[in-house]
Q: What sequence folds into this?
C-alpha cells in the first residue's frame, strides 16, 4: 500500500504540534524548509498497516505572500499536493480560525477539520453543531482532544478514507455576487490565456484562486504571472476591476474580499454555533488580571525569571560538573594508556579538550530549554512580552517579545539566539540576535571570578555586577544605533495573540527541549570539533615545541597580535592568546592563563601538559570546584602562585579593561554557529564577530585610557 | 469616533476605520480587526499595549498601532 502524505495546518497555538508529537513521537525529523529559515517538521507513523507521512506546516493566520511561513505553507500545498490537509481548529476560537480554513479551501485543498479544545469551547458556553458545519462546508469535521486520545481513531479513519476520495469544495465558497462575478471574469481570461502553461507551478493551483490573489495584489503571484509573458490581458482587467471596487465600495478590492470571507464565516457560524448571551469570564481571564496587572506584572515576571535561573543552575551546574569530570577522566585514561606523544596530545588537548569544554554546557542548555518550553506551552511567555513591552518600546524601539531572548542570554547566548524564533519579524529577530551576546553569559563568570579575586577582593561583587550592567547598557545602546542605521525605519508593528493558559504536557515539553538541544549538539558540535583541531594544531606546531608555548604558532600569533591590545592595557602575548582561545568558549580564557603561566592545579608549578590535563578542564574547575565535589585541587583564583603571576602582568585598571573586553568581544564559536544556523547565512555571524570586536575594543580603550587620565 | 487607544476597559466597540497601510492592515484583518468588526477592550493601562477581545480570542496590540485604529461605541 502506498503511503499517504498529509499536512497539518492551522493557526498558532491550536494544538497542531501536540497532535504531531502524539502521532510521530520520536520518529520525527526537524529541519528547515529549502532556502528558508522556517522550521520544517516531518515524521511518519502507521495506522492499520497504512504508512502515513505527515508534515507540520508553520502556524499561520492566513496564506498571503507577506510572511515566509505563509509562503512556505501555500507553496507546499500547491507544489507538493499533500493528499489530505488536517486543519486543526481551536473550537473555542472557531470564527477566527475558519479564516485560514477558507483560504485553504480556495486553494482546492482536500481538507479534514479537526476541532480541538472542545472542552474550552464548552467552558466558554459555545455549542458547535459539527454535522451542520460539515454539511455547510462540504468537508468532514471531527472532534478531537490533542492532549489525550479523544477522537484520534475517528480522525485517522477519516484521513485514510478522504485520501482515497478527495473532495474539492471550491463551489462551497460564496463571496457574494459582486466579488464572485469579478473572480469569474478574471478566471475566464486566465483559462484562455494562460492555461496549459506548465512552466510555472502557480498554474497548478485553481484559476479562481489565482484570480482572487491577483485582486488582492499578491506580489508573488503577480510576479509569476508576469514571468509567463502572456499576462497582459489578465493584469489589465484586474486593474480595471480593482478600480471598480474602489468606486463602488469606497474601499480596495483586498478589503472587500476580506469582508466577503468574514461574511461567509459569519453565516456559517450563525447556522452551526450557538453562542452564550453573556460573555463568561474564563479562568484565563482571572489569572491575567493578576499576571498582566499594571503594577504586579513586572515583579511577577522578575520572580519567574529568577526562578528559571535558580532552577537551571542549581540542577544544571552539578550535572555539567559530572560531564567535566568524565571528560577529565577520559583524558587521563587516554594519556595513561597511550603515553606521551603527538597522538595523545591530539586526542586529549585537541578533541577531548575542545569538544568537552562545550559539552559541559549541555545540561544547562537542556534544562533552560525545558523550562522555556514549559513557560511557552503554558502561555506565560506571551504575557511576559506584554508586560515588558512598554520598557522595550521606550528604550530601544523593539517590542516586548525581544526581551525574552535577552533574558536567556544571561544563561547562555545559544538558547538566547534560538529563542529569537518567537519573533515573527525577521529584522527584529536579526537585531535581537546581534545584541543577545552582550548579555553576560555564565561562561564569562570564571574570568570575572579570577581577575576579580586577584585585583578587587574588597569590591569583587560590585565589579562583577558592574560588568553585567555594562553588558545590558551596551546592548541597549547598540540596539538603538542599529534601529537608526541598518534596521532603519523597519519597526515592526506589534500585534500578537494572547493564547489562553494551558497546562503544558510533559511529552510536548520534553520533545521541544530535545529537538532544540540536539540541534545544538549536532551543529555546534561538528563546528567546534573542527575548530578544536585547528587550534590544537596551531598550538602544537612547529613540531617539537611545548604545547601552547610562545614558540608555537599560537604563541607567535599572540606575540604578533599583542601590540594591537597594547593601548587597552594588556599587551602581553599571553593575554592575546587567551583572547584567541576564549573565542572557542569564553571560560577557556582562565584555563589558558593557567597553562601559559605554567601554574598547575596543585600550585606546584608543574606544566599542564605533563599533568595530562587539557586547557579547558583545568580552568573550568575554577568556578565549580567547591560545589561539584570536595576536591583536593585548588581553583586558580585561590592559587596564591597563580594570583601573584597574574598580578605581575595586570594592574587593577588593565584587569578591568581586560574583563570589559572579554565581556564584549566576539561571541563564542557556539553562538556564532547558532547565528549562522538561525539566519541561514554567513553574513550575520561575520558581522556579529566584526562589530562586537570593534565595540569591545572601543569600550576597553575608553575604560583604560580614561582610567589612566583619571589617575587609576 | 475615537482611537482605540482612548477606549476604556470593558467597552464594546465597532471598528470604523483602520489607518494602517498594506501589510499591517492585512495582518490585522487576518487576526479579526477590520472595518465593521466588533471588539471588546479587556485591558488598557497607559502606557503599554492593549489587550482586546476579537471574536473570542485575545489580541495584544501596541499602543502606537492602536492610535491608528478608529472605533465607536457599539
A:
Amino acid at each position: 500500500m502506498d503511503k499517504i502524505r498529509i499536512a497539518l495546518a492551522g493557526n498558532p497555538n491550536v494544538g497542531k504540534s501536540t497532535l504531531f508529537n502524539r502521532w510521530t513521537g520520536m520518529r520525527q525529523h526537524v529541519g528547515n524548509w529549502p532556502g528558508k529559515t522556517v522550521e520544517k517538521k516531518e515524521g511518519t507513523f502507521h495506522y492499520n498497516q497504512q504508512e502515513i507521512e505527515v508534515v507540520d506546516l508553520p502556524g499561520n493566520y492566513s496564506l498571503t505572500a507577506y510572511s515566509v511561513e505563509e509562503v512556505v505553507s501555500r507553496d507546499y500545498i500547491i507544489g507538493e499536493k499533500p493528499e489530505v490537509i488536517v486543519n486543526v481548529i481551536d473550537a473555542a476560537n472557531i470564527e477566527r480560525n475558519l479564516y485560514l480554513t477558507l483560504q485553504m479551501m480556495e486553494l482546492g485543498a482536500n481538507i479534514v477539520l479537526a476541532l480541538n479544545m472542545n472542552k474550552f469551547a464548552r467552558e466558554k458556553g459555545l455549542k458547535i453543531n459539527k454535522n451542520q458545519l460539515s454539511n455547510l462546508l462540504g468537508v468532514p469535521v471531527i472532534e478531537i482532544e490533542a492532549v489525550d486520545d479523544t477522537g484520534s481513531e475517528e480522525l485517522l479513519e477519516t484521513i485514510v478514507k478522504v485520501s482515497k476520495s478527495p473532495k474539492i469544495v471550491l463551489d462551497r465558497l460564496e463571496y457574494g455576487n459582486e466579488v464572485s462575478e469579478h473572480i469569474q471574469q478574471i478566471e475566464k481570461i486566465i483559462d484562455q490565456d494562460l492555461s496549459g502553461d506548465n512552466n510555472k507551478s502557480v498554474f497548478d493551483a485553481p484559476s479562481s484562486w489565482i484570480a482572487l490573489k491577483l485582486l488582492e495584489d499578491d506580489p508573488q503571484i503577480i510576479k509569476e504571472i508576469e514571468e509567463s509573458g502572456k499576462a497582459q490581458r489578465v493584469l489589465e482587467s484586474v486593474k480595471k476591476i480593482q478600480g471598480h471596487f474602489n468606486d463602488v465600495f469606497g474601499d480596495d478590492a483586498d478589503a472587500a474580499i476580506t469582508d466577503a470571507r468574514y461574511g461567509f464565516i459569519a453565516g456559517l457560524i450563525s447556522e452551526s454555533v450557538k453562542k452564550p448571551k453573556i460573555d463568561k469570564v474564563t479562568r484565563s481571564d482571572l489569572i491575567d488580571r493578576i499576571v498582566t496587572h499594571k503594577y504586579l506584572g513586572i515583579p511577577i515576571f522578575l520572580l519567574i525569571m529568577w526562578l528559571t535561573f535558580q532552577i537551571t543552575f542549581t540542577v544544571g551546574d552539578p550535572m555539567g560538573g559530572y560531564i567535566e569530570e568524565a571528560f577529565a577522566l577520559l583524558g587521563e585514561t587516554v594519556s595513561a594508556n597511550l603515553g606521551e606523544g603527538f597522538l595523545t596530545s591530539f586526542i586529549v588537548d585537541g578533541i577531548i579538550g575542545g569538544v568537552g569544554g562545550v559539552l559541559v554546557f549541555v545540561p544547562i542548555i537542556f534544562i533552560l530549554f525545558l523550562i522555556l518550553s514549559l513557560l511557552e506551552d503554558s502561555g506565560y511567555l506571551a504575557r511576559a512580552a506584554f508586560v515588558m513591552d512598554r520598557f522595550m518600546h521606550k528604550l530601544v524601539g523593539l517590542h516586548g517579545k525581544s526581551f525574552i531572548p535577552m533574558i536567556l542570554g544571561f544563561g547562555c547566548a545559544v538558547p538566547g539566539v534560538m529563542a529569537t524564533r518567537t519573533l515573527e519579524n525577521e529584522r527584529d529577530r536579526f537585531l535581537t540576535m546581534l545584541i543577545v551576546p552582550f548579555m553576560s553569559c555564565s561562561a564569562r563568570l570564571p574570568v570575572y571570578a579570577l581577575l576579580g579575586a586577584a585585583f578587587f577582593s574588597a569590591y569583587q561583587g560590585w565589579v562583577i555586577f558592574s560588568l553585567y550592567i555594562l553588558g545590558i547598557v551596551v546592548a541597549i545602546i547598540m540596539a538603538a544605533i542599529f534601529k537608526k542605521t541598518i534596521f532603519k525605519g523597519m519597526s515592526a508593528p506589534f500585534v500578537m495573540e494572547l493564547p489562553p493558559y494551558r497546562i503544558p504536557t510533559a511529552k510536548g515539553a520534553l520533545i521541544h527541549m530535545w529537538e532544540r538541544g540536539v540541534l545544538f549538539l549536532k551543529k555546534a558540535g561538528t563546528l567546534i570539533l573542527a575548530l578544536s583541531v585547528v587550534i590544537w594544531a596551531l598550538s602544537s606546531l612547529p613540531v617539537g615545541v611545548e604545547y601552547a608555548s610562545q614558540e608555537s604558532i599560537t604563541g607567535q600569533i599572540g606575540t604578533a597580535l599583542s601590540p594591537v591590545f597594547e593601548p587597552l592595557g594588556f599587551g602581553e602575548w599571553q593575554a592575546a592568546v587567551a583572547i584567541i582561545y576564549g573565542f572557542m568558549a569564553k571560560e577557556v580564557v582562565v584555563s589558558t592563563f593557567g597553562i601559559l603561566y605554567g601554574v598547575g592545579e596543585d600550585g606546584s608549578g608543574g606544566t599542564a601538559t605533563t599533568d595530562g590535563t587539557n586547557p579547558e578542564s583545568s580552568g573550568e574547575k575554577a568556578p565549580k570546584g567547591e560545589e561539584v565535589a570536595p576536591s583536593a585541587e585548588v581553583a586558580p583564583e585561590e592559587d596564591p602562585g597563580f594570583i601573584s603571576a597574574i598580578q605581575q602582568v595586570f594592574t587593577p585598571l588593565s584587569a578591568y579593561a581586560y574583563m570589559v573586553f572579554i565581556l564584549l568581544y566576539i561571541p563564542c564559536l557556539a553562538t556564532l554557529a547558532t547565528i549562522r544556523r538561525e539566519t541561514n547565512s554567513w553574513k550575520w555571524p561575520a558581522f556579529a564577530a566584526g562589530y562586537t570586536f570593534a565595540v569591545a575594543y572601543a569600550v576597553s580603550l575608553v575604560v583604560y585610557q580614561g582610567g589612566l587620565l583619571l589617575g587609576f | 469616533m475615537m482611537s482605540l487607544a482612548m477606549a476604556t476597559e470593558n467597552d464594546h466597540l465597532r471598528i470604523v476605520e483602520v489607518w494602517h497601510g498594506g501589510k499591517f492592515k492585512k495582518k490585522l484583518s487576518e487576526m479579526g480587526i477590520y472595518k465593521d468588526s466588533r471588539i471588546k477592550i479587556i485591558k488598557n493601562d497607559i502606557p503599554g499595549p492593549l489587550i482586546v477581545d476579537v471574536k473570542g480570542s485575545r489580541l495584544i496590540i501596541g499602543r502606537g498601532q492602536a492610535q491608528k485604529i478608529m472605533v465607536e461605541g457599539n
The helical segments of chain B are 22-30, 63-66.
